[in-house]
Amino acid sequence: MRCWVLIVSAFLLLGCASQPQPADPALWHVESANGQEGWLFGTIHSAPRPIEWETPSVRAALADAGTIMVEVANIADEAAVGATFARLAKSEGQPPLSQRIAPAERPALAALLKRTGFHDGDFAAVDTWAAALTIVRQDNDGSDPRYGVDRAVIARANGRPVVELEGAARQLGIFDALPEKEQRNLLDVVVKEADKPDLDLPAAWRKGDMKAIEQETRTGLLADPGLRAALFTGRNLRWTARIASTLRAGKKPFVAVGAAHMAGPDGLPAMLEQQGFKVTRIE
């Protein structure tokens, strides 16, 4: 599920190692009419290898920032995030997973479960959304959250305030609040996308290719109107209000969130422009 490494940060707990890869990720400068400023930095939450993400422009912006804004401040605390997931995911008396998907998709689900080491009845005490995310995590491309750029940005805070736009409980709570119909749509997308060839999104991110990233936000789970509203557009609207308030307060935020949230007319740069800010891509 290719978009997860760019959109959802709270539940990616994996493992591997390799040599660093150079990157030139997208960065925007934001300025108000009164001269208050900040930066938008599109991150990747997980990657197969370490990334040399701190370009001179990113380093200068990060050094000049007064506040760091991220999706989840304790993203490196995997035990705490995992406990939050387990608490929200718990739901007794659920039917077998095959009964929560259209009959036509059941053979593909069976093949995916076999590949990931699960069985149809393994999720009897788990919400549908949580089952879908668990399968996605297991059916992974080898990405490791230890190489996620969000963590690295937080580590550079050096005593400055780290403000979370969402937090793990709220982020996972968005999934937990989905109507069962949308949760099953999510599972359906996971199954249908499992065997499709993926665009190399980590590579697109390293090149700052926002056109490719924006195209990906029109596919898969974000092509479903209900899921798009819950997981993408609605979150961006809430974050824009928080970011705008922080900018106007003169706190010079460095906003580091999944790069997909920067993409297209529903992305943070476009939404801040609609709020009257001047937004300029500088890298």
UniProtKB/TrEMBL annotation:
Which keywords does UniProt give here?
Answer: Signal
| TM region(s), chain numbering | none
Pfam annotation, one family: TraB_PrgY_gumN
Q: Per the record's keyword annotation, is Metal-binding included, yes or no?
A: no
Which PROSITE patterns is this protein grouped with? PROKAR_LIPOPROTEIN
**Would you indicate the residue range of the signal peptide?**
1-23
The organism's superkingdom is given as: Bacteria
Q: What is the protein's name according to its record? A: TraB/GumN family protein
The protein's organism comes out as Novosphingobium beihaiensis
